[in-house]
Amino acid sequence: KFRLSTPVYKELKPIPWGQLEDIKDEPDIASIMRSFYSEDSALKVMLEILGKMNLNDLALRLNKDLQWSNHIFNFSCKKYRDVQRQIKSRLKEKFQCIFETLPKQGKTIFLNDIYTELYITEAGNGGVNNEHAIRQIETEFWKNASPEHTIKCSDIFKPLPSQRKHIRTVLTRGIAGIGKTVSVQKFVLDWAEERENQDMDFVFTLPFRDLNRMKEKQCSLIQLIHRHFPEIKEMEKILWENLKTVFILDGLDECRLPLNFKDNETWSDATETTTVDVLLTNLITGNLLPSALLWITSRPAATNQIPPDCIQQLTEVRGFNDAQKEEYFTKRFSNKVLGNKIFEHIKTSRTLFIMCHIPIFCWISAAVLEKLIDEEVNNEIPQTLTQMYTHFLLIQISLKKQKYQGNYVRNSKLLLKEDKEMILKLGELSFHGLEKGKLIFYEDDLESYGIDVQNKNVLHPYYGVEKQEQCEVTNKHDVKEEKNNIFQMCKFIHRLSKRKRASLPTLHKSAIYLALLSENGHLDLFLRFLLGFSLESNQTLLEGLLTSTRNANWSAKVTVKYIKKTIKVDYPPDRIINFFHCLNELNDHSLVAEIQTYLKARNLTDTKLEPYQCSALSFVLLTKEDFYWTRTYLCKCVANILLSSMGRLDSCNLRDSSFELVASALKVTNHVRELNLSYNVLRDTGLTFLARQLSSPHCRLQTLRLGNCCLTEVCCGDLALLLRFELRELELRDNDLKDSGVKLLCGGLEDPKCGLQRLG
């Protein structure tokens, strides 16, 4: 102790005697030395003191041990760097290219060359939107992106400016084809190429599709990683807790593991063997490798498999905004003239332009239009979804023949005739899957419809086939249900052609009835395609599948007349809007033009509109870019409410004066169940307008979100009255309600009629 309190090295200060005086045990002295000096400095001091005490043998032995420890440390560091370099090399090779249907010979498409940053935001914590993905896209089109904080995929683990928390687990949701997997690919590639996130030691991708294969197996977490990344075998004795490791679990919606968070045993040893399900649940909850970071991606419907308290950040991929759409097509084609020509064509069709909000639809459109323009087939350039997907089907089959048979066939009739049986079988499978909400099929599913899963050459243009230990056949390129619908339409029409007494309009009426009965609009796109296929131009493309195309124009006219009649019936607004989309697929715009003329001639705020006219207003605003009047933006917000049972008007730059019109929109529909008005300048006056309508007995609103709406205690009386109705959830965060306002709310909560379940 005396020598520690006197100068030993000139550059190192002695430890004050007061800190050493009462210490008697050697471990306590060592602890003081470690806290006062750095590890290296403490060792130097100890060697010097041992020398001055003539304990040279002990000093020599300590010095030898130190040299050996340094050797082991340097060896481990070298091994760590070698393994890290190998894994980066593996990931770079795996993720640097984008694999399209069939790249041109000698042409490789690099992700960095065409990658367009996606629109990713923090997601709300509301319920899952069960509406059809296409309807969600059309609703999302109205969202004003500018006020929201967007997140780059490379910053997915970084807190937002308003956040002060450590983020361990991120859950990113998004509909099919919106860009979740490509975002993962870009994140990993940037790390592997040392562009981003170099503070992370390792990034391991473990797709749920691959983890499904190990459903019945047992292993340790280290063995699981080793199975996917053999390079880490050299590091099995490394303390993984000391490393910053990222696990990316892509495709939760494809998971076939039970993920039994409730009953699985607690597991904290990364080297001990157990089931893969136990490993995953404990990795997600943080019992296993709590220092690791996790990124999980999923379609919205599957996100409830993860307990909310395990997620520190919930994000949402919303696809491309308008500027990003243009950027994608500019980057996608090395021939800039061709890229501009294709994008200009897409802008001429509002339906196609809105659908390009989905990156995979941009990819499909690029493939179709490039081929048609390249072959100078200008009379066949698609204007509708039906036309686009029909051409895409033909291109896929043509590529299959080119790849496996070596011959190129352009005649669509010959192409479809040879694959007719397979297409119709897949159509039946797809339709039954659509009815059940099933988008991923396995080998037993295909075999039950007489499909030879061993013949991958036949399946190639429709599904990616992966032969797994469980004989699993999955949709390799995440082929969307919209494509499945094409197969189903062909099957439907083929059946019809064999029924002598049946007519195409009769089939259309049956399909319209089925679509009206569907709870969440999951048959809306089905209906659009079915009606679109009744056009003679589309039937001509499908001649190889259809036995007859007689009276196509007559059938279309009869169906148009029936739809116009149905539109004026009091059906939910979202279904009426879909009927307008159906008319668009049938190339009939007369009713839209008629209503558009009517609306232009009147002052909307002073005009009482019929429910179907409000739906028409929504459709016109959605599809007609040039339709304008002074309050266009407010009317877009009204359209948003009418488009969905989940009215999302958050961050729309609305002010208190705007909410009179928003309230009036609620008068014509009782279908809205959730309304999000957060991050608008609602103020107390705006809430007064809303409260009048929301307290109506016809209103069925259950969830109201008013976060950060500039509300004060003045409005709390109106809010308390709302609690007497059907409201189940009310969000009021970041408002200045004061104690007096809270007391008023408490009074409403004590009302026997109050059914509120959550107040936040």
Automatic annotation (TrEMBL):
It is found in: Cytoplasm. The keyword Cytoplasm applies. One of its GO terms (cellular component) is cytoplasm. The lineage of its organism: Eukaryota, Metazoa, Chordata, Craniata, Vertebrata. The keyword Cytoplasm applies. This is NACHT domain-containing protein. Residues 168-302 form the NACHT domain. Residues 1-68 form the Pyrin domain. GO terms for molecular function: ATP binding. It comes from the Eukaryota. Pfam families: FISNA (PF14484), LRR_6 (PF13516), NACHT (PF05729), NLRC4_HD2 (PF17776), PYRIN (PF02758), WHD_NOD2 (PF17779). It comes from Paramormyrops kingsleyae. Keywords: ATP-binding, Cytoplasm, Leucine-rich repeat, Nucleotide-binding, Repeat.
